[in-house]
Amino acid sequence: MGLIVIKPGWQTLIMDLGREDARPWGVPKSGALDPHQYQWANILVGETAERIGRTPVLEIRSGNVILEFDEDHLFVMTGSPGEYELDGKRINTYSPSLAKKGQRLHIRNLYRNGTIYLAVNGNWELPSYWGSYSSDILSPLPGLGGRALLQHDRISISSSSITFDYFKRLTPNHMKREPEQFDPVFRIIGGPELNLSEERLKKILEDSDFTILRNSNRMGYRLQSSISKKIRLPEIISSIVTPGMIQWTPGNQPILLLPNCQTTGGYPRVAKVIEADLWKLAYTGPGDSIRFLWSTPDEARYLMEYQQGQFEIAWRNISSS
Question: In principle, which of 115, 129, 142, 175 could form an S-S bond with 282, CB 3.0–4.6 Å?
Fold first, then answer.
């Protein structure tokens, strides 16, 4: 019971909120690029608060994905808009759908460098590693813990009771990821080595455009800058790094770290994307141009608390409907 992979697409991964407690042991966090869309997908198919952070979903970052249901299941997709069909019939994101046994979900394409989260009602029967189901294609974890989905893979999901109340759940507009609302500007605060750099680096980070290179991966986005003069920073010993941190390399090509980043690194850490803007990493990719805008620790805390508060209000409203 569950899903059969007919076409896996470029990179379809099992995801939850990741393995935060494993970082002290040198194991990357991994986890969904857009945590709120991951959680919202699970909410729409009836997951409880106790399970919401550890229930697997599929994180899909390309089109040409075909999945077959081998049992009746309630499912929903959140995140990027695109062309999605169930046995040839168009379906929308943020709207729970009922798939009958044998029906196929066809994800034809996603908008730009986007991401969608596919949640399926029921118990996903998968092994976890370090307390998480998240795939980490850059670590030597066994099975689906260490790779993307392949053709003919089967994911066992035990069916759960489905009520029509799920189909009444509506998503407020502010919870949806709409292309016209997306602004590829990431607010940042200073990193530990910023003060060791040349004074002009702070201005350069805010005034320059950076293009995401094609040799990027889930460890980090490699960025091409238009900076002509070499920025020199002192060498540092390998130090703790976290998702969202910006490391400055000798070639003026900074690296913006993603959830699968290493736990330590030797490049100077000049800045960090604030927590409230990390979700934007799910809707950017190779070829995209991004910018940075300086923030403050106080603003970063306020924005994160406000964002989380809005999410919790929407959660309570939909749970009580």
Answer: 115
pLDDT digits (tens, 9 = 90+) for 256-314: 999 999 999 999 999 999 999 999 999 999 999 999 999 999 999 999 999 999 998 98
Number of domains present in the structure of the chain:
2
Q: Which residue, 205, 307, 319, 207, is CA-closest to 254?
A: 205
Q: List Cβ neighbours of 180 (8 Å cut-off, separation of 6 or more).
A: none
Residues 58 and 193 in one domain: no
Residue 32 neighbours by CB under 8 Å, 6+ apart? 15, 16, 17, 18, 38, 57, 59, 117, 134, 259, 282
For residues 317 and 151, what is the distance between their CA atoms, to the nearest angstrom?
39
Same domain, 17 and 32: yes
> Do residues 152 and 4 make contact, with C-beta atoms less than 8 angstroms apart?
yes
Helix, coil or strand: residue 153: coil
CB 14 within 8 A of CB 144: yes
Residue 225 lies in a domain: yes
DSSP element (H, E) containing 202:
helix 200-207
Q: Of 11, 71, 74, which Cα lies nearest the Cα of 41?
A: 74
- Residue 314: inside a domain: no
Summarize pLDDT for 192-229 with one digit per residue, the tens.
998 877 677 888 899 889 999 999 999 999 999 877 77
Same domain? For 205 and 166 the reply is no
Residue finishing a domain among 155, 177, 199: 177
Range of the domain at 220: 183-309
Q: How far apart are CA 160 and CA 46, in angstroms?
A: 10
